[in-house]
Structure to design on (310 residues):
């Protein structure tokens, strides 16, 4: 069955809300942002592929495209389904990849505020780095919103964040401008910072969500100093607990003091529809993960041009 149209599902940009598809694995409730979903299908047999991650079941071809299938129960260390013939595939598209995630059942679409999501501590899932964007309580149960970008990285589907690609630059440079990176995934945050550092950006300040970044930006503004002395550009994800990237962008661009600061959206959710939303809120640029080289090129355009014109 196909998911209802994105126009019906996606929340107004800047409202700090999201819609989550709730699904179950081993009796536990999980969630995925509907903006990542292409289709929901009944489970189909797959063809196994040798020498792949143990969490990759194989591939299937529902229509004209071969799609990799990830077994989320195996990845999370949870029991396999007792009735696999009833299982579901959630077909997604993000990070420029189309992937199907094998789950046990799909429940409801839930409307949440990002303020409803709390970041879990790192003791969840046997001490591994957290696999959750956040956890929300709905009625009598907790729903874990999974970090699907980390899932793809762990199974080897996404190797794009490699700082070595910047080591062959024709000249060495030390760029001292303060750049804010707002990203809730500690894994991706580290990858982005490593890439920017190798590209020459030495003063990077990172924040785990839009609220943390906004609090710091307001503090800087209240010091009555030139905002560009403290933040030359802001790179922000969209999906984040407490305050999402669109809400952060809206707050910045509707403030006459802060509005001149360039804001680049760097997200796995970038699509034609989502670009319209970002443009409507005043985003200076929007880059789809994992195109880190495009991000650095755009960042250079803002930072180096400003430095030259000082």
């Amino acid at each position: 069955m196909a998911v209802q149209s994105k126009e019906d599902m996606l929340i107004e940009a800047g409202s700090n809300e999201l819609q989550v598809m709730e699904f179950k694995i081993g009796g536990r409730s999980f969630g995925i942002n509907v903006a990542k979903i292409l289709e929901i299908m009944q489970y189909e047999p797959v063809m196994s592929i040798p020498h792949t991650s143990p969490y990759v079941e194989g591939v299937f071809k529902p229509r004209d495209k071969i799609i990799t299938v990830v077994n989320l129960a195996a990845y999370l260390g949870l029991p396999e389904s007792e009735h696999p013939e009833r299982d579901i595939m959630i077909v997604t598209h993000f990070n420029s990849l189309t992937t199907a995630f094998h789950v046990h059942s799909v429940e409801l679409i839930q409307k949440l505020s990002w303020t409803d999501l709390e970041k879990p501590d790192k003791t969840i899932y046997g001490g591994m780095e957290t696999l959750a964007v956040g956890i929300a309580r709905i009625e009598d149960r907790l729903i874990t919103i999974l970090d699907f970008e980390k899932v793809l990285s762990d199974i080897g589907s996404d190797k794009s964040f490699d700082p070595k690609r910047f080591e062959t630059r024709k000249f060495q440079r030390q760029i001292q401008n303060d750049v804010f990176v707002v990203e809730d995934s500690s894994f991706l945050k580290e990858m982005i910072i490593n890439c920017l550092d190798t590209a020459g950006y030495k003063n990077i300040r990172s924040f785990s969500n839009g609220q943390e970044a906004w609090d710091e930006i307001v503090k800087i503004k209240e010091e009555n100093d030139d905002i560009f002395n403290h933040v030359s550009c802001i790179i922000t994800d969209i999906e984040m607990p407490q305050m999402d990237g669109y809400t952060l962008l809206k707050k910045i661009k509707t403030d006459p003091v802060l509005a001149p600061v360039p804001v680049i959206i760097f997200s796995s959710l970038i699509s034609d529809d989502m670009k319209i939303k970002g443009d409507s809120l005043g985003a200076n640029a929007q880059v789809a993960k994992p195109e880190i080289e495009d991000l650095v090129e755009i960042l250079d355009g803002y930072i180096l041009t400003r430095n030259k014109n000082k």
